[in-house]
C-alpha cells in the first residue's frame, strides 16, 4: 500500500517542474523542458561516466520511447510490449506482451502511470491498464477503430483522473481525435476532434481530415490547459482536394482537460502539403520576452520554424526558421508562414526544404533556463514532392522522396530565434531527443550511434559512448544518491553513472 | 435541391462512373503513390545543357562523354532524377561510374600518407577502404586528415536549383543514352 499511496500522492500533486529523483511522464514532467536539476554529473566529471547496466529487449524493434521511472521501477515500451525493470540494475521485473495484431508497428513512445497502474497503448488502438507491480491486466478499452486505418504509438498523458490518448493514421482520410479516458474505469470522458468528426462537417476544415494528435502533450496546472500538437491533413499531398488553411491540422492547440473544449489554436502550417506534422513537443517556459515576464510556449516545428507563443491566449511572439526552408513566401500577420504555391507537390516534382522527415520530428528538444537556449535535433534537408490527379484524394495521395540531409544539434536563443551554436551529428537525420542539466550539460545522440554529452554553453563535446542507433530522448534520475543517465540504443537500454562503490 | 433532368441512360452512366471511380480508388488504397518517367518530361534539354555548362557548374566535375556517358540508360525516370540530385552510393575502394564516394587523405603518425575512399565516419573515428578494399579505422585525434567530398557540392547545389533548372538539367541528362 505504501507504494500505491506514494505514487498517488506524487501524481495528484504533480509539479510542473521535474521532481529530480524520478522521470514521471514521457517528458519527465508536465512542462516538456527535459531539464533536470540533478547536480552530481557536471562538465568537470562527465568524462568519467561509465556504463552500469544494459537491458536487452531481445526483440527486433528499436526502442523509440522515453522510459519512465517511478519508485525505483522503470517502464519501457516498444510496439505491443512493456517491461518493468529495476532502475538500479536494469533487471527485468515483468514483461507484458500484447497479442499479435496487424496494425502499423512504426514505433512506440512510452507508458504513463497513475496510482498503482501503468497505461500502455497498442498499435491497434487499445488502451490497457496494467498493475504496476506485476503487469496484470486491470482493463482494456478500444480508443479508435484500427480496421479503419488508425494506429497508436502514443505515450498517454495523465492529468488527475484523465488519461489523454492520441492516435495516428495517414493512409486513410480519418478525423484527428484525442480521447480522455477515466484513469480508474477506462470509460471515455470526452473526445476532441481536430477535424470534423465522423458524419460531421465543418466548413473551416475545407474538407480536410487528419490532424492526428500522436505525440504526448504538455500541461500548465495553473491555466488548466493541455497543449498538444496536431499532425498533417489528409489527403496528405493533394492540397487541391481540401482548399483553405485546413484547421486544426498542423497546429498547436490548448485544450481544457476536464471538458475537452478548445481554448485556442495556432496553426503553424496552414494548408500543409508536405506531411509536416506540428506534433513536436510544445515546451512550456516561464521567462522574460521583450522585457516582460511571460508564460511562453515554444515549438521547433517539423516545417523548419521555431514558434514562440503566449500560452495564455495562443498569440504569436516569434516565428523564425531554425533550419533550411524554401516553402514559405513570408510570415502573415498572425505569425504563420505563408505557403508558396510554387512548392506544392506537382506532376514533375518540386524540390522542397525541409524533406518529409522534417527539420525536426517527434524526438523531443530541451530548454535550458540558465542560458535561454532551446536545443533541438535539427536537419537541413531536401526532398522532392509529386502529385498528379491520378494519385487521387485518399490517404497519401501523392509521392515524395527524401534527397539528402545534414543533421545537427542546434541551440537557439528563444528571444531572437538566432542560432547560437550548431553541432554536426552526421548525414541524414538524427533520431535522438535532448536532455539538459542544471549543471550545464546537454545529452543527446548522433546519427552514427553515439550518446553525446555537450557543454550547453557552446556545444563542445565532453563525453561520448557508442550504443548503436539512438532512439528518442535520454532520461535522468537519482536512486540512493546515484545519478543515472539512460538512453535507448537499438533494441537495448543503456544506463550510465559516475564510478561508485560497486 | 433542384430537379435534375436526366435520362435514365445518363443516370445509369453517372452511377456506373461513380462506382468505377470508387472501385479504382479502393484498389489504389491510401498508400504512397509512384512517379512515371513521362511525369518528369517537362524540362528543356538545351536550357539544361546551358545550366550544366554554365551557372550550375556541373561541368567542373562531370562530362557527358565521360562519367555521364550512357547515364540515361543506366538510370531511368525517378532514379535518374535522384542520382542527378544526390548520387550517393555504397562506398567502394574504386567508385563505380556515376557515384561519388568521399576521398580522404590521411597522414599517419609515421608520416606515411594514404589517399582512400572514406567508408564511414563519426565525430571520433573514421574508416577508410584501402586499395584492396580492406577497412582501416583511425581515431581522428591520432592522425591528420583532409576529406574531399563531392557529395557536399551536390548538397550545396540543392539550395541553388530552381525547379525549372532541376527539370531542365534532368531533360539534358535524359538525352545521354
Give me the secondary-structure category of chain B.
alpha+beta
Provide the low-confidence segments of chain A as ranges: 1-17
Distance between the termini of chain A: 31 Å
User: Largest interface, counted with CB-CB under 8 A?
Assistant: A-B, 46 and 35 residues
Strand content of chain A: 35-45%
Low-confidence stretches of chain B: none
| Overall morphology of chain B | elongated
Helices and strands of chain B, in N-to-C order? HHHHEEEEEHH
**Cα-atom Rg of chain B, whole angstroms?**
25 Å
Question: Measured on Cα atoms, how large is the radius of gyration of chain A?
Answer: 21 Å
Alpha plus pi helix count of chain B: 6
Main sheet: strands, sense, barrel of chain A = 5 strands, mixed
The number of E-state strands of chain A comes to: 38
Helix content of chain B: 25-40%
Range of helix content of chain A: under 10%
Summarize the topology:
The complex is a heterodimer of chains A (502) and B (177).
Chain A: H1 2-12, E1 35-36, E2 50-56, E3 68-70, E4 73-78, E5 81-86, E6 92-97, E7 112-114, E8 117-121, E9 126-131, E10 137-142, E11 157-159, E12 162-166, E13 177-182, E14 188-193, E15 209-210, E16 218-220, E17 225-229, E18 233-234, E19 251-255, E20 262-267, E21 283-289, E22 292-300, E23 305-310, E24 315-321, E25 328-331, E26 337-339, E27 350-352, E28 366-368, E29 373-386, E30 399-413, E31 419-427, E32 435-437, E33 441-445, E34 450-455, E35 461-466, E36 470-479, E37 482-489, E38 492-497
Parallel strand pairs in A: 1-32
Antiparallel strand pairs in A: 2-38, 3-4, 4-5, 5-6, 7-8, 8-9, 9-10, 11-12, 12-13, 13-14, 15-18, 16-17, 17-19, 19-20, 21-22, 22-23, 23-24, 25-26, 27-29, 28-29, 29-30, 30-31, 32-33, 33-34, 34-35, 36-37, 37-38
Chain B: H1 8-28, H2 45-53, H3 71-74, H4 77-85, E1 103-107, E2 113-121, E3 125-129, E4 135-139, E5 144-148, H5 150-158, H6 163-173
Antiparallel strand pairs in B: 1-2, 1-5, 2-3, 3-4
Helix pairs in contact in B: 2-6
